[in-house]
Each structure stands twice: as C-alpha cells, then as structure tokens.
Amino acid sequence: MPKMKTKSSAKKRFRVRPGGTVKRGQAFKRHILTKKTTKNKRQLRGITTVHERDMNAIAQMMPMAGL
C-alpha cells in the first residue's frame, strides 16, 4: 500500500485553521491589474475561507490535515 501524500499544490495554497475551516488567498490579484479599479484591488486583499461545498475536494488533496 503506498503512502498517503499531500498534494504539493494544496499545501502551498491552503491552511487549516484550528476550528476546521480552511483559509485561502484571494484570486484575480496576480497580474493584469491595470484594468482593475483601485476599489476592486483593495477588496481583493487579505484572505477568505474555502466554501463548504469545496471542502471534500480539499480533504482529498490534504489527507493528513484531519478534515
């Protein structure tokens, strides 16, 4: 039986909080920022939580996280 491994892409993008929720960074903030308004870019700052419908996919990618 092979070892269960965490997806490297998932461990770089997600962090599990003590309460069991998963935090993630905001999308649409990396490039092509000149056409986005200052208000839009400001609202994309910070972190947000992963939606509960996506938690099954995150749990499969991070089996050792205890989700």
Automatic annotation (TrEMBL):
InterPro entries noted in UniProt: Ribosomal_bL35, Ribosomal_bL35-like, Ribosomal_bL35_CS, Ribosomal_bL35_sf
Origin species: Melaminivora alkalimesophila
GO MF entry, a single one: structural constituent of ribosome
Name of the protein in its database record: Large ribosomal subunit protein bL35
Keyword Ribonucleoprotein part of the UniProt annotation: yes
Keyword Ribosomal protein: yes
Assigned protein family: Belongs to the bacterial ribosomal protein bL35 family.
Pfam families: Ribosomal_L35p
Listed GO biological process terms: translation
Comp. bias intervals (Basic residues): 1-16
Key words of the record: Ribonucleoprotein, Ribosomal protein
Gene Ontology terms: cellular component: cytosolic large ribosomal subunit
Domain of life: Bacteria
Gene: rpmI
Region of interest called Disordered, as start-end residue ranges on this chain: 1-23
